[in-house]
Fold this sequence. Notes:
The complex is a heterodimer of chains A (486) and B (144). Chain A has 486 residues and is mainly alpha-helical. Chain A is built from 17 helices and 7 strands. Chain A has one domain. In chain A, the strands form 3 sheets. In chain A, strands 3-4-5 form a 3-stranded antiparallel beta sheet, with helices on one face. A two-stranded antiparallel ribbon of chain A has the order 1-2. Chain B is 26% helix and 33% strand. The interface between A and B is large, with 64 and 48 residues.
Amino acid sequence: MSIAAQARPFASAGTRIRPRIRTTETALLALVAVTLLVGAASLGATQRLIEAGKAGESLASLDFGAPDPVALVVYLGTIGLVHVAFILAGRRIDQVLLPAVALLGGIGLLLMQRLPQDLVEQEFAGLVLGLGQLQAMWLLIAIAVIGALALGVRSDAWLRNYKYTWAAAGIGLLLLTFVFGSEVNGARLTLSIGPISGQPSELLKVILVVFLAGYLSENRSLLAEESTRLGPLRLPPIPYLAPMGVMWAIALGIVVVQRDLGAALLFFAVFLAMLYVATGRLSYVVGGLILFIAGAFVLYHLFGHVQQRVDNWLDPWADPSGAGFQVVQALYALGRGGLLGMGLGAGLPTIGGRLPVPAVHTDYPLAALGEELGLIGLLAILGLYLVVVERGLRIAAAAHDDFRSILAAGLALVMGIQAFIIAAGNLKLIPLTGITLPLISYGGSSLLANAIVVGLLLALSDRGAGAPAPPRRRRGPIARLRRARA
Amino acid sequence: MDGIVLTLWLVRLLFLALLYVFLFAVVRVLLRDLRVASRGPAELGRLVVVASPRGEPLPGAFFQLDAVTTIGRDVNNSIVVDDPFASADHAVLTFRGRAWYVEDLASTNGTFLNAIAVEGIAEVGFGDELQVGEVRLRLDRGRS
């Protein structure tokens, strides 16, 4: 036991902020910048070559300029600013998350610049912004949110102490969407309040993780107990099973009312994963899965829209130009991509002025990326999500209490599971109604919610300001004089 | 024209290659991080002194814990709590398998876990607070 030697009051550390160099992050961010610039060059050149081919001209030389250099440079500059802020703040924040997230966001930005710009258009004070510019704008806000949360959140008390308030807010948000939400493509996801419209289910997933982390860390030992016996099953005390039932009901409610299979799957999977992280008992996961399968079976037989989704998934070729159109086109796109892809900007030929894959910018970005970057590119992108999850779980393992630990694991898993679900849906492994691909898909709500996730993870990774460096002995004539006088 | 197509093809491949260079660099960082984390005997946990009206132990100080840590007023305890409400041998903290447990050693005034009296033995989660006499101690995960 080594005691008193290490005993020192906490207050002495960090009274003065000293910048702390972050070599790893600097190097990785430089690599990200180079990668994105090369990607932009490839995209710009391909687009010019295709235009020239259409016009029947032949090019003497190729201009490797980016399609929208300003947006890309501003994006990279903002990330650089956040990086500098981290250095100046002198905290020991995780150094890998920001570069990984920056690369994912950058790939998303390139994709949005490459898609037809009139896919989404919004007008601000007479200025019409296209898809790429809107995405760039949202990305800037998201990066700012990440930086602000990472540096601003010093205490987790506001998350920990108000968990039931958060839960109430979440359920309120869900009910609002149930009642006032507007239906787009057969799913009731969008909530509009005045000029602001957004998809609350994106924000809801963050709230869910915060609530579950608070609840599970408080009742961990009770949940791990086995006091109720039900035949061969041993269960924890009945009152503590209630949240499990509530979660199950919420997931089914989302399927029935919102017709959103993806979000329901995400919420329930995250719930089971966090339950496992907190209690370490596999029987909960098995029980939850059985409940889920039973619920899914009943819903399939009761509701037409679920049946239709599953039928589309089982055999999209039954109606390839109607219900199965999206799935079939996504599969064709992936097939065209092959191993190395067609190159950024070279895929996705428009059919009669329309894109082959509907909702490619929100629900099916992986189909477009698979066509243009190929299997190799897709694997790299999935690898980036794995990196984010690994960092999150490491942060969870190093956190110094249960709440922070479960919260970090939950935040990392919610992003990982969402990426996994949407990837599986795009590749026709599971039936799906759209959720977004974190950090790549177009959309303000999705980018902001994921920025909050990343920002909180960075804040949780903070191991406090480093102890101030020992005062350096001054060299030079004045110091020598002083020493001589003393 | 062919030269142009070839250059473009190389730029495309360069982009894909750079994605993997990034992944490779990240994986190297992660492996180094995991190696550092797995090296050496990690701390099992630490007790942080939250409140101590009499200043022994010092508020804000922390103790790195061994698998068995005794708490009490007697000087032979691992953590000496100089408090009139603490017994000579007050409580013992043990690390068993994956979790910490606290046991009250029949102390006069009792040991409290999150303000609830400990009867017999109780599991202590990281972030929980123990009270011995008037001294409050919080169990934190050890640093790696």
